[in-house]
Amino acid sequence: MGRIVEANLVGTGLKIGIVVGRFNEFITKKLLEGAMDGLKRHGVDEENIDVAWVPGAFEIPFIAKQMAETGEYDSIIGLGTVIRGATTHYDYVCNEVAKGIAQVSLQTNVPVIFGLVTTENIEQAIERAGTKAGNKGFDAAVSAIEMANLKKMFK
Ligand SMILES: Nc1c(NC[C@H](O)[C@H](O)[C@H](O)CO)[nH]c(=O)[nH]c1=O
Ligand SMILES: CC(=O)[C@@H](O)COP(=O)(O)O
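Predict the joint structure of the above. Result:
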């Protein structure tokens, strides 16, 4: 059997970028709090966390790409909240942000984490922003650390 590659969750020395959407800010600020908590509790120095606010989830991939291209970041986290409305707008936003984040990650070789809450209603969003279903921002922080460390294992 070959090697099994599994990264630890130690964030010491990592530099992390966060891109967060202002749309539905009452939820996204909770995701940001969760992400900051997750990063710091796993050893990331607050000085090594940069946060960029964008208007909405649709804009996350563009700024994530600008950040990734600086070469400064070990991982980037996208945080946003898309809540279904009366029209098809939801589907366009969700599809583009998901595809965009995946593309930025593959094009730049920087892990970009999908820390978005995409829900049918406000209640589902609240549940995923620090109440009964955890905090998607915290989960994204742990994934960012794991991916940054995993990437280093393939150098
Ligand atoms: N409806 C939601 C949006 N819509 C805004 C777009 O993301 C974008 O900012 C605008 O279309 C300008 O390009 N954004 C969210 O983050 N969440 C939503 O529920
Ligand atoms: C997910 C959204 O974009 C949403 O806020 C838009 O709502 P609507 O479809 O009612 O315009």
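The pocket of LTPLIIQW (ligand 2) is lined by residues 82-87, 89-90, 93 (CB under 6 Å).
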